[in-house]
Amino acid sequence: MIDAVRETARIRGWDPRRVRYEVFNAAHHPGDTDFAVRLRSGETVRVGAGVTILDALEASGVDTLSDCRRGECGLCVTDVLDPHDGIDHRDSYLTAEERGTSTQLALCCSRAAGQLIDIDIGGTAKNLS
Ligand code: FES
């Protein structure tokens, strides 16, 4: 229902910043699968089906920024170096135009559409197994 309201507002040309709604666990959907994110260092971090990119990076010891962890604040938005098969955007921070370019994603809720995404995060994973 929230998506329908947002889409109707978009069709009517309303300013998206004036449409208020609450997000309920945008990060996890049934049928999500594992994928990997490759850091600027070349290291790869696996992201499990029930795990966000942000959680996987933190568990691997990679320094990240975050706040809301629901795709609303934009603090975790990170540049994408190569989206490979695309990005499943689940945030409400990026505009439709920004999502269409696949040059950024919200680590706290968005996922790879395929098996791999290259992201522009420096540092190194300290806890890779
Ligand atoms: S932490 Fe707020 S959008 Fe990801």
Which CATH top level class fits?
Answer: Alpha Beta
Strand segment tally: 7
**Largest sheet descriptor:** 5 strands, mixed
* Share of residues in strands: 15-25%
What is the typical, i.e. mean, pLDDT?
89
Unreliable residue stretches:
none
Helical stretch tally: 3
Order of helices and strands: HEEHEEHEEE
C-alpha end-to-end distance: 41 Å
Structure notes:
By secondary structure, this protein is of the alpha+beta class. The model has no long low-confidence stretch (mean pLDDT 89). The relative contact order is 0.23. It has a single domain, classed as Ubiquitin-like (UB roll) (Roll), CATH 3.10.20. It contains three helices and seven strands.
Compact description:
By secondary structure, the chain is of the alpha+beta class. It is built from three helices and seven strands; from the N terminus they run αββαββαβββ. The strands form two sheets. It has a five-stranded mixed β-sheet. A two-stranded antiparallel sheet has the order 4-6.
Any descriptors?
single chain; 129 residues; alpha+beta; Ubiquitin-like (UB roll); five-stranded mixed sheet; two-stranded antiparallel ribbon; 18% helix; binds FE2/S2 (inorganic) cluster
